[in-house]
């Protein structure tokens, strides 16, 4: 889903993590357009703002083809795995205590699992 609309940049504010919050003002919207905007809240996307002129079909096609995974690099795969394992550890009542040792045991299980696959081929 996408929203393409005429808007004016109303302002911005800097955030402590060095990101920027942008505010745009659109013209009046129909209930259906507002529904589409509501559905996009808290999603990751691409913002392309072009002052004083509208987008042409080629620009719209280019925007539709932008690979969002290029921009969504919040965590590496290893950081994601560690975070998931930490949550599992917490769910099992471990909390923060003893996580380092538990993490070593669990990652060793994962390593051995894939080593066995190599041995079986």
Tell me briefly what this model is:
The chain has 121 residues and is an alpha+beta fold. It has 4 helices and 2 strands; from the N terminus they run ββαααα. The protein has helices spanning 31-40, 57-64, 77-91, 99-120, and strands at residues 7-14, 20-26.
Explain how this protein is built.
It is a single chain. By secondary structure, the protein is an alpha+beta fold. The protein folds into 2 domains: 7-70, no CATH class; 77-120. It has 4 helices and 2 strands. It has helices spanning 31-40, 57-64, 77-91, 99-120, and strands at 7-14, 20-26. A two-stranded antiparallel sheet has the order 1-2. Strand 1 and strand 2 (20-26) form a beta hairpin. Helix 3 crosses helix 4 (99-120). The chain is elongated, with a radius of gyration of 23 Å. It starts with 6 loop residues before the first strand and ends with a helix.
Please estimate the helix content.
40-55%
Distance between the termini: 44 Å
The order of strands across the largest sheet is 1-2
What is the strand content? 5-15%
Number of helices: 4
- On the 0 to 100 scale, the average pLDDT is 83
How many whole angstroms does the radius of gyration measure? 23 Å
| Total beta strands | 2
Category by helix and strand content: alpha+beta
Total number of domains: 2
SSE blueprint and pairings:
Layout: E1 7-14, E2 20-26, H1 31-40, H2 57-64, H3 77-91, H4 99-120
Antiparallel strand pairs: 1-2
């Amino acid at each position: 889903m996408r929203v393409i609309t005429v808007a004016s940049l109303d302002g911005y504010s800097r955030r402590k993590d060095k990101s920027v919050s942008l505010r745009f003002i659109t013209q009046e919207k129909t209930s259906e357009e507002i529904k589409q905007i509501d559905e996009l809240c808290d999603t990751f996307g691409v913002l392309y703002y072009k002052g004083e002129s509208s987008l042409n079909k080629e620009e719209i096609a280019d925007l539709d083809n932008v690979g969002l995974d290029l921009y969504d690099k919040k965590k590496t795969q290893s950081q994601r795995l560690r975070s998931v394992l930490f949550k599992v550890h917490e769910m099992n009542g471990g909390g923060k205590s003893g996580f380092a040792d538990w993490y070593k045991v669990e990652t060793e299980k994962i390593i051995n699992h894939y080593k066995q696959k190599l041995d079986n081929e």
